[in-house]
Write a structure and sequence with these properties.
By secondary structure, the chain is an alpha+beta fold. The protein contains 4 helices and 6 strands, in the order H-E-E-E-H-E-E-H-E-H. The radius of gyration is 15 Å and the shape is globular. 27% of the residues are buried.
Amino acid sequence: MAFKASRDIQIHLVTDGANTKGWIHTHGLEKFGVPDLEIREIPLFLGPYACLLLNEFAEYLVDNFERKPVIPGQTIQMGPCVFTVEECPILPEDEGDGHYTVRRFRLVDSAKMIGRCHAHQKSARTTH
């Protein structure tokens, strides 16, 4: 059975409440030989779009990682969304809560770009 992100991994949203921003991250990609993913400081109203982006990028990674590996520092474009991939260090505070003891990539500048993706999707729906 082919990998399908919405079925084969989990995506969690952790909020800080006070600033109405969130941390969206995956669990389970290590089983498929690729790093888990995250986006930090995402406005909560963009959470569903960030989840879609993580799912799409996870599927790209699993399907292409051996042939076309993603390298930290690389700029990636997915549709109208453009972001930079960073490799996250495993910090002692991360190990304590059980969230990350595996390799992970962070999508940077995504909050602004996801907003643009949302606006692009919305305008595409209203113009067709």
